[in-house]
Amino acid sequence: MPVRRQARGERRIGDILDATLALFAELGYDRTSTNAIAARAGMSPGSLYQYFPNKEAIAEALSQRLLDQLRAAHAAAFDQASAASLPLPELVSRVVDPLVAFNVANPGAKTLFGTAAMPAALSAGSRPLHDAVTGRVAALIRARFPGLPDPDVNRAAMVAVQIVAALMGPIVAAEGRERAALVAELKRALVGYLAGSGGSDPAA
Amino acid sequence: MPVRRQARGERRIGDILDATLALFAELGYDRTSTNAIAARAGMSPGSLYQYFPNKEAIAEALSQRLLDQLRAAHAAAFDQASAASLPLPELVSRVVDPLVAFNVANPGAKTLFGTAAMPAALSAGSRPLHDAVTGRVAALIRARFPGLPDPDVNRAAMVAVQIVAALMGPIVAAEGRERAALVAELKRALVGYLAGSGGSDPAA
DNA sequence: CGAAAATACGAGCGATCGATCGTGTTATCG
DNA sequence: CGATAACACGATCGATCGCTCGTATTTTCG
């Protein structure tokens, strides 16, 4: 049942998602209470539930908003043409750098990027984001290694995404030189991994 | 205040840790209730709290038990001699294979291996395990790359451990052929990463 | 044996959680 | 304007959480 939103309502939804992202970054999903979200967003619990039916829906909406932002910030990095022709380190940099910037700007995004075997509730909310990113990476790998069978492509994309996700926490937590060093390590790991990804490398 | 444990008590403690490990594997730390632990261990909540002052202490004890088991299962893999002389893929295999076997045998171990920026409660309980493993990996890397400065050694160890931890979830969740394929990918990723770890590789 | 210590139980405490609801306020529109 | 719908509030609900406590049973040991 759709509701005619007023401008004020749209603003409030944004406030809720902002508060949720901040609290997820500090406490994670389980330890973030809906009352705390409402308080940080400057509203009552009742108002919060005017816009979302339950906690999971908030996580889903936040996941969707992050996905949209990521898509916008990442548009250029995922075109197939450069995927096939660029040197591998350059290609990895083009994908990783915006991703790092995004996560630094949005700490707490990683909470919505839960790895695997999580409680179904959060897993369901974060799967769209996770799947979308993995899918884009798979497309990139497929474009670069045209001979690679689909199962191998998907597995390589999953592994690459897991590696990035695993190191994003420490990267976001670090600062300055140490962060730069960790990003360099992440790129080295990805290049080292992908360089040996079966099939021929068009730009090796 | 130490307590003279009877044989029955030691057995009960083992039951509690077994139940906790199983529940952590299914639900994670937050969603595992102490009452559920007691129920699965076949005792009342009161009995559970006869052996542990609180939930965090249970996680710590479990973490310690896992660490001991891991040490036993891993003794041979971490000697310095082979670290310097073995071919890198062989060395990686010797470390990774027992680790995979251990995690397959103890699903839920990964719950105690929380990455970073987790709620302090769980983080404190799992840090010993995490630090011990990272320290052993660091010693291995230091033995293999004698010229590498300490900060670089520690960073590389941390990155390697994060990569292993990130892929352990999918590996444990998979079975048969797919699991073997994922393990192979993990090894490739580690070898690719470590092969380029500055300094000279004694056995390159 | 008998006393002390360890083990066992489970109803229930206080706190907190996600979510509801009755009531009042503000915006939209004919 | 008046009417309707969207927005806002916060006390409070029922459920669940980590944990306690009074009491009963079993083991240890002199």
Structural write-up:
The structure is a homodimer of 204-residue chains. The first copy, chain A, has 204 residues and is mainly α. The first copy, chain A, has 2 domains: 7-52, Homeodomain-like (Arc Repressor Mutant, subunit A); 62-195, Tetracycline Repressor, domain 2 (Orthogonal Bundle), CATH 1.10.357. The first copy, chain A, has 9 helices and no strands. The longest helix of chain A is centred in the middle third of the chain and has 25 residues, at 120-144. The relative contact order of chain A is 0.11. The model of chain A has no long low-confidence stretch (mean pLDDT 88). Chain A binds chain B through residues 25, 27-28, 30-31, 115-119, 155-156, 158-159, 162-163, 165-167, 169-170, 172-173, 181-182, 185-186, 188-189, 191-193, 195-196, and chain B through 25, 27-28, 30-31, 115-119, 155-156, 158-159, 162-163, 165-167, 169-170, 172-173, 181-182, 185-186, 188-189, 191-193, 195-196. Chain A binds a DNA duplex (30 and 30 nucleotides) through residues 3-6, 8-9, 12, 33-35, 43-51, 53-55. Chains A, B: This is TetR family transcriptional regulator. Chains A, B: Residues 10-70 form the HTH tetR-type domain. Chains A, B: Keywords: DNA-binding.
